[in-house]
Design goal:
The chain is of the alpha/beta class. The chain is built from 9 helices and 16 strands. It has a single domain, classed as Metallo-dependent phosphatases (Purple Acid Phosphatase, chain A, domain 2). Strands 1, 2, 5, 6, 13, 14, 15 and 16 form an 8-stranded mixed beta sheet that branches. A 6-stranded mixed beta sheet has the order 7-8-9-10-12-11, sandwiched between helices. A two-stranded antiparallel sheet has the order 3-4. Strand 11 and strand 12 form a beta hairpin. It starts with a helix and ends with a helix.
Length: 374
């Protein structure tokens, strides 16, 4: 068990008592690890969403995008595997409409590199994610086609150049029909974990080359991929990261609840959601075959320029302990979270771990109400 997990076990209950009574989620009951079990730690954060000031900071800082999450980096480094949602393309030399143009270089010009409503990040973001310890990202989200088909192609080229695995999108020339081709299998410590991402849509931009896996119109493909991956002898666990839901709502809609449960029933060990830009609760779900899986309906924003409301500044780094016995499949044997708050102080944008004392009280209350004091 890692040092930071032991620290959380001791500190979070104390922080909850410091805040006072709160309505906590029902306690989780995780299966006991069998004798001789091995463990793998996974951390997951929400949206990497670089609005204009954050993008400018990335390009100006010697630390690049790492300047945005420097205080969270130790937790990323101590985990065996780390995940984030890359919310938008990182396409070199592509203007709106997916038109190739000369690249402006390391500058936010508002044309090639832009913010809401059509994002495009400098490709150095991929290198900064790798340098920070991220092992896999989702590229399936509603902003994936903000620079058209060429934008996805060049984003994938940038991720490949940085050696950052991705899931949920593919190049415009792809012809693979195997559902599992959308997934990425990450190997570490002798473990093989399959990651699969999908999205509810692409903001009305036609996906003419079927480059983004759709959670709903491709539902059969998604479930088939999860089932096939979960039944492969060379894969220990499957984690799905659906980009679904309604923005800024605290509670998942019934269609999201049904989708996430179907993903666990198909064989996933955990479902880590995104898109609402606010946190939504986590729950356990027991599948018909007796497996106990974990759903985080929304991780919220990891980094973003959405400072207008408390909910969009609050997020969580979720920690999972996967365990497997000799010859068995992995399962979620424990879970915790690190409360996070996005701030802007002294001209610097950054996300920080918080306590009941150091964080904005409303943010602390929100996160402990949704995730408890684990």
């Amino acid at each position: 068990m890692s040092r930071w997990w032991l620290t959380l076990c001791m500190v979070l209950p104390m922080m909850a008592r410091a805040q006072g009574p709160t309505a906590l989620p029902a306690p989780f009951h995780f299966p006991l690890s069998p004798a001789g079990a091995t463990h793998l730690s996974i951390v997951a954060v929400g949206d990497v969403l670089l609005h204009t000031p954050l993008h400018r900071q990335m390009l100006a800082s010697p630390d690049g995008a790492r300047s945005l999450w420097m205080d969270v980096a130790p937790w990323l480094a101590q985990a065996d595997m780390a995940y984030a949602n890359l919310e938008g393309p990182a396409a070199t030399g592509v203007r709106g409409g997916g038109v190739a143009v000369p690249d402006p270089g390391n500058v936010f010009d508002g044309k090639v590199y832009g913010s809401y409503p059509a994002f495009n990040y400098h490709a150095r973001l991929a290198d900064d994610l790798v340098a920070s310890g991220f092992d896999v990202v989702s590229t399936a989200n509603n902003h994936a086609l903000d620079r058209g088909a060429l934008g996805i192609d060049r984003t994938i080229a940038a991720l490949n150049a940085a050696q950052l695995p991705y899931t949920g999108s593919r190049v415009s020339t792809a012809t693979e029909t195997d559902p599992t081709a959308w997934a990425r299998v990450i190997e570490t410590k002798g473990w093989h974990v399959a990651w699969l991402a999908c999205a509810f849509g692409t903001n009305g931009i036609p996906d003419r080359h079927h480059q983004v896996l759709n959670c709903y119109s491709d539902r059969a493909v998604v479930l088939a991929a999860v089932h096939a991956l979960a039944h492969r002898s060379d894969i220990d666990a499957v984690i799905v990261t659906p980009h679904v839901g309604i923005e800024y709502e605290d509670t998942p809609r019934p269609d999201v609840v049904a989708l996430d449960r179907d993903l666990l029933d198909a064989g996933a060990s955990a479902v880590l959601g995104a898109h609402p830009h606010v946190t939504q609760p986590w729950v356990q779900h027991t599948s018909p075959d007796g497996r106990v899986g974990l759903i985080v309906y929304s991780l919220g924003n990891f980094v973003s320029g959405q400072f207008q409301r408390v909910p969009t500044r609050a997020s969580a780094l979720v920690w999972l302990d996967l365990a497997k016995g000799p010859g068995g499949k992995a399962f979620v044997a424990g879970a915790s979270y690190l409360p996070l708050e996005m701030t802007h102080a002294g001209g610097v944008y950054a996300v920080h771990p918080i306590t009941a004392i150091t964080g904005t009280p409303a943010i602390w209350q929100r996160l402990t109400r949704m995730f408890g004091a684990r």
